[in-house]
From TrEMBL:
<dbReference type="InterPro" id="IPR050763">
    <property type="entry name" value="ABC_transporter_ATP-binding"/>
</dbReference>
<dbReference type="InterPro" id="IPR027417">
    <property type="entry name" value="P-loop_NTPase"/>
</dbReference>
<protein>
    <submittedName>
        <fullName>ATP-binding component of a transport system</fullName>
    </submittedName>
</protein>
<dbReference type="InterPro" id="IPR003439">
    <property type="entry name" value="ABC_transporter-like_ATP-bd"/>
</dbReference>
<dbReference type="GO" id="GO:0005524">
    <property type="term" value="F:ATP binding"/>
</dbReference>
<keyword id="KW-0547">Nucleotide-binding</keyword>
<comment type="similarity">
    <text>Belongs to the ABC transporter superfamily.</text>
</comment>
<keyword id="KW-0813">Transport</keyword>
<feature type="domain" description="ABC transporter">
    <location>
        <begin position="6"/>
        <end position="237"/>
    </location>
</feature>
<dbReference type="InterPro" id="IPR003593">
    <property type="entry name" value="AAA+_ATPase"/>
</dbReference>
<dbReference type="Pfam" id="PF00005">
    <property type="entry name" value="ABC_tran"/>
</dbReference>
<keyword id="KW-0067">ATP-binding</keyword>
<keyword id="KW-0536">Nodulation</keyword>
<dbReference type="GO" id="GO:0016887">
    <property type="term" value="F:ATP hydrolysis activity"/>
</dbReference>
<dbReference type="InterPro" id="IPR017871">
    <property type="entry name" value="ABC_transporter-like_CS"/>
</dbReference>
Amino acid sequence: MNDAVITLNGLEKRFPGMDKPAVAPLDCTIHAGYVTGLVGPDGAGKTTLMRMLAGLLKPDSGSATVIGFDPIKNDGALHAVLGYMPQKFGLYEDLTVMENLNLYADLRSVTGEARKQTFARLLEFTSLGPFTGRLAGKLSGGMKQKLGLACTLVGEPKVLLLDEPGVGVDPISRRELWQMVHELAGEGMLILWSTSYLDEAEQCRDVLLMNEGELLYQGEPKALTQTMAGRSFLMTSPHEGNRKLLQRALKLPQVSDGMIQGKSVRLILKKEATPDDIRHADGMPEININETTPRFEDAFIDLLGGAGTSESPLGAILHTVEGTPGETVIEAKELTKKFGDFAATDHVNFAVKRGEIFGLLGPNGAGQIDHL
C-alpha cells in the first residue's frame, strides 16, 4: 500500500490585479487509498491549487509537501512519482494511440521489457487495445480521456492529479473512467479529482469544497448532506405556475435556495425556518409543501450562501407562453434516419408536452443530435 499524503500549510496564491487571492491560505491533509474530490464552481481556485501541487506555479506564501517533496524545491524528484492530467491534456492528435504512449514512455524513461509490460497493462486497463493504430484526433471524447489517463499512468506514479477529467465525456465513458480511478485508489494511489459536477463529488470518499479561493469544507459528502435534514422541501400551488411560485419564494427571508424540479418547486429553507413560515408569508398563494430527502447539491449551495434574493434578469423579461398546460407540442412517430446501412435513429417515438424540459441522454453516437 502507498501511504502517500499531501500536506498544505497556509498555502496561498495571488495574481496581479486581483482583489482576492486565487487560493487563500489553505491548511489540509489529503491521504491515499481513496479518491478525494476538489469541488467548486468556476473560479474557485481548483486549477491554481492543482498547478501548485504539480510544481507548475510557485505559491506566494505557505508551503505544500507531496509525499514528502516540496513541489518547487524538489520538482525533479516529485515529477518522477506524480502524474498530472490537466484540463487540456497534451495528446498529439496527429499521432496514433500507440505513438502517444511511446512518446510519454520516452519522457518517463520507461524502456525495454518494462515499457512492454506497462503498455499491455494500460491498454487492457483502459480497453484501448483494439485502437492502438487509431489517430488520437479520431477518438471520441471519452476515449481521449482514457488515453490521457493511460499516458499519465506511464511510469506508475504514486500521486494522480486529475483536473476536471469528466468534462465533455459521455455518461458511459465517465462511469468507466470512475471505475478505473477507484481501482487505482484501491491499490493505494493518492488521487485528487477536481470537478464542478456535484454528482461526481458524491462519488468521492472525501471532498474539499472551495469557493473564491477559500476552503469551505473538508470531509465526506454524505456528512455534509446530512446537515440539511429537515430543510429540503417540495412545493406546489393549485393556483400558480412553478416559475412565478419560485420567484415569490426566493424573495422570502426564510428561503436559502430554490429551483424548479419536475412538477414542483424545490426549496431549501434557512436554519430555524419552518414550512408554516412559507405557507403564511405575505404574497404567497395557497401551497402544498412537504419535506423531501436532502441532496448534496442542497448542502453545497447553502454552504455558498444560497441563491440570494435577486430576481433573474432573464425571468423578468420572459413572457408567459399561451397554451394549454400539458398539451403535446412536439411529437415523433417512428422517427428514422439512416446514413447508408447505419441507423442514426431507428423508429423512435416520443412526445414533448408544454412546460416540460425533455432530455435526450446517451453516450456519444447515440443519435441525440440527429433527433434534434
